[in-house]
Write a structure and sequence with these properties.
The chain is mainly alpha-helical. The protein has 5 helices and no strands. The model has no long low-confidence stretch (mean pLDDT 80).
Length: 70
């Protein structure tokens, strides 16, 4: 729960989908590229996206999905 709060604060479905699409295109290890692309698409700062990438690596994607979509 704490990782969700730290990594995906105020993320919408659209924001999260943009993030996932960037990860699918670039791979999980391309943090800077994912941050830049997601930031451009969502208006989030690159630092916010980087926190999301780091949190995403530490928790199950299903938990994040449920948190944002439900």
């Amino acid at each position: 729960e704490q990782l969700l709060r730290e990594g995906f604060v105020d993320w919408t479905r659209k924001d999260f989908r943009s993030f996932l699409n960037a990860m699918e295109r670039r791979g999980r290890d391309e943090v800077d590229v994912i941050a830049r692309e997601t930031s451009n698409e969502t208006g989030k700062t690159e630092e916010e996206v980087r926190r999301g990438v780091l949190s995403y690596r530490d928790i199950d994607a299903t938990v994040i999905y449920i948190h944002i979509y439900i």
